[in-house]
Each structure stands twice: as C-alpha cells, then as structure tokens.
Amino acid sequence: MTVTVAATLTASAVSVDIEGINLSYGDNHVLKDVNLAIRPGEFFAFLGPSGCGKTTLLRLIAGFNQADTGRVLIGGSDISALPPWKRDVGMVFQSYALWPHMTVAANVAFGLEERGVPKAEIARRVTAALNLVGLSHLGGRRPSQLSGGQQQRVAVARTVAVEPKVLLLDEPLSNLDAKMRVQVRRELRDLQQRLGLTTIFVTHDQEEANTICDRIAVMNDGIVQQVGTPMELYERPANLFVANFLGTANILDGSVVADGDGRWFAVEGGARVPVPADAVVPPGTKLVFRPQHASLTRAGAVAEAGQLQGAISHREFLGASMRYGVRIGGSELSVDLPFQSGAALFEAGDAVTLGVPPSALLWLPAA
Ligand SMILES: Nc1ncnc2c1ncn2[C@@H]1O[C@H](COP(=O)(O)OP(=O)(O)OP(=O)(O)O)[C@@H](O)[C@H]1O
Q1: Do 124 and 144 have their domain in common?
Q2: How far apart are CA 329 and CA 74, in angstroms?
Q3: Is there an atom of ligand 1 within 6 Å of 25 CB?
Q4: CA nearest to 69, candidates 30, 37, 16
Q5: Which of 147, 157, 248, 303 is most deeply packed, by most CB within 10 A?
Q6: CA dist., res. 108 & res. 319, Å (int)
Q7: Would the pLDDT of 173 be above 50?
Q8: What's the mean pLDDT in 172-179?
Q9: CB of 54 closer than 6 A to ligand 1?
Q10: Taking residues 168-175, what's their average pLDDT?
Q11: Is this structure's pTM higher than 0.90?
Q12: What region holds the ABC transporter domain (predicted)?
C-alpha cells in the first residue's frame, strides 16, 4: 500500500553539482571555492559547526542566495540563473513555516494551488503526501493541535507534494526533543528511500549525519574539508578538523627525529613512536588515534617502541565500554576498553603502558 502511494509522488532521481562556488557577504568570504558532486538518489549531508556556511550553501541551491562565482547544476542543467520557483527543489525550513490558521491538508495544498495545479490533482497529491508521512487521519487539524514531530512531518509532506526533484532539509530535527529526533530521523530516511529523492540535509550534529546520510561533506569556515561516507570520514579523516568533528580523537604533538634505526615521532615525555616508511610527516603533523584502538597494560614491563607510559587520571562507565583518561606527559588521552562484568579495572593513579597498533595510527595535518 505504502509503495503504491509513494510511487505516485516519485520523480526520477537527479544529480546535483556544485562547481567553483564563492560567496561573500560584504567582507565576509562565506563560501570558498566549493565543489561537490551529489549523486542521483543520494541522502547527502552538509555537516559543520555553526557559521561554517551550510545554510548559505543550501539556500544557494534553492535559489535564495546568489554566488559571486560558480554554478549549480541539477540533473546536468545549469540552474544558476533560475528563480527559486523554477528550480524543482523543495526546502523544509528549521522553523517548518506552517500557516497557523490553515488545516494540515490546506497547508499541504497551498503550494499546489499557488502553482495552479488542477483541483482533482491537488486532492490526489495531498492524500498521497499525508499518507506518505502517516498523517492522513489528521488532515483536518490545525498545526497548533499537533506535536512537534507531527508538524515536522506536515512540513515534509507539503514539500514533497509539489514533487520536487531535490529535497533540501535545513536542520529539520532541531526543534524536536532527543527521543523524537531519533524517531523522525528514521522516518525521514525511510521516506527518502521510498521516494528515491536526491536529498541534502544540513546539520551540525555528527550523529544525525552519520545515522541517516549516505555521504557527508564536512565543512569548516566555508571550506569543504572532506567528502565521504560516515565510515570513511571516521576511519580515514583527511585532517585534524575532520578527526575531531567525527568522534573522539586522541591527538599527540611531536616532531620527527631520524637516527640509524629510522624515523621516529618524539612526543612530549620522551616516548618515541616509529614513523612508517610510507608516511608523509611534514612539520605540524599530529599523531592521532581513536580511543578504542588503544590498549592498556600495567606498567612495569619495559616499554617497547610505539608504547607510551602514563597514569590513569579517571574513568567513565559508558555501558558497553569503560573510558579511561590517561595522562601522558602533558596530554590527557582517552582509551575505551570493552567492559566485562567482574573483570579487574584500572584505578586512578595506576601506572600504565598505552599501546596502539601502527595500523590504527593516523598522521594528520591540521587542515
Ligand atoms: N544574510 C546574511 N547577511 C550577512 N551575513 C550572513 C547572512 N547569512 C549568513 N551570514 C553569515 O555567513 C556565515 C555563514 O552562515 P550560515 O548561516 O550559512 O552558517 P551555518 O553553517 O548554516 O550556521 P548555523 O548552523 O548556525 O545555521 C556566518 O558568518 C553568518 O553570520
């Protein structure tokens, strides 16, 4: 049943290409040579901290902002010169922007009436869109009589009812409480899959992007830092910013020294970690590893190359794992060990040796 309903609103999926975009507000250079190739049917995220330019880029695709240079292509056609209403994109705003005096069904119908869609067709699409988001029974209510999650679904229904080729979502979950957010993000993913609609999702929340998106562009200060699947970004971050923004990263400062035995990364406190022969380690490179890739053993044994001596500073119980804070020289590092009921734990003050397999070490530039 759902599949039949969805099919009536499906457009064939299109690509979105962003080429050489620069945009400034006065002296503020907000988007800096942005290039992205978003594939047909992809659920794509713009992820980055507040002020990095995500919304500006999304509004540019929608036609609400003009670039200084570059162009936007939808399905291979340059749409840069088209006004918003001729672009075949639908945008869901953070605030939902529903009309409070209209019923849910009238809100969904509004955009179709404006476009001069025939009455019978409007009725068909309103029914299909409300079915799609599971609200067909609430068409007669006003937005104020709905929960936040339901209002969000009305905003999505209203947008997909106009059958856009591209769906743009600007932090659509930010007004929901934590539990609703998890539920609605699954619904959004499910809806996007059923419609096969190319979708771009703006968020500053890495968990949100990781759980629902196929690929993510990580942005900082108007620059795309890296594009990849959530797993690629986590396992092979291109720089320190990406490593820090997606998950917890341990970062060690140091400098490369060479002797008869090869190259070493000398960190504060005297420990030396061997630098792999193929690693490119210009000045400023940091040594990075994830908390779950490290091991801890009680100190006493002679430290081998690649091992760091330190002391436990504290521990946090995370359920499936125990996170230990380990002080090494002037740095505080995190190590996650699987939690096993009844197993001996390290205590604050314990002297430990921290080991990381060479394959889990990342040699990263700052940006
Ligand atoms: N209409 C505008 N006029 C002038 N400056 C603007 C305008 N809109 C955004 N900016 C500036 O452009 C930069 C990027 O803003 P943008 O809203 O795109 O960031 P964002 O990554 O979406 O942040 P947030 O997550 O807080 O929404 C910021 O420095 C912001 O102050």
Answers
A1: yes
A2: 53
A3: yes
A4: 30
A5: 157
A6: 44
A7: yes
A8: 82
A9: yes
A10: 87
A11: no
A12: 16-246
77-91 pLDDT, tens digit each: 999 999 998 898 999
User: 293: domain CATH number?
Assistant: 2.40.50.140
Is the pLDDT reported for residue 223 higher than 80?
A: yes
Residue 249 and residue 288 in contact, taking contact as beta carbons nearer than 8 Å? yes
Count of Cβ atoms closer than 10 Å to residue 7 Cβ: 12
Among protein residues, the one with the nearest Cα to ligand 1's atom 5 is: 25
Phi-psi region of 171 (alpha: psi -120 to 50; beta: other; left: phi over 0): left
Q: Indicate if the pLDDT at residue 4 is higher than 50.
A: no
C-alpha 26/C-alpha 70 separation (Å) is 18
| 233 & 259 share domain | no
Distances (CA, A) of 250 to 168, 240, 295: 35, 10, 13
341 pocket-lining for ligand 1 (C-beta < 6 Å): no
Amino acid at 159: T
**Is 243 a pocket residue for ligand 1 (Cβ < 6 Å)?**
no
**Number of domains within the chain:** 2
Q: What's the confidence (pLDDT) of residue 187?
A: 85
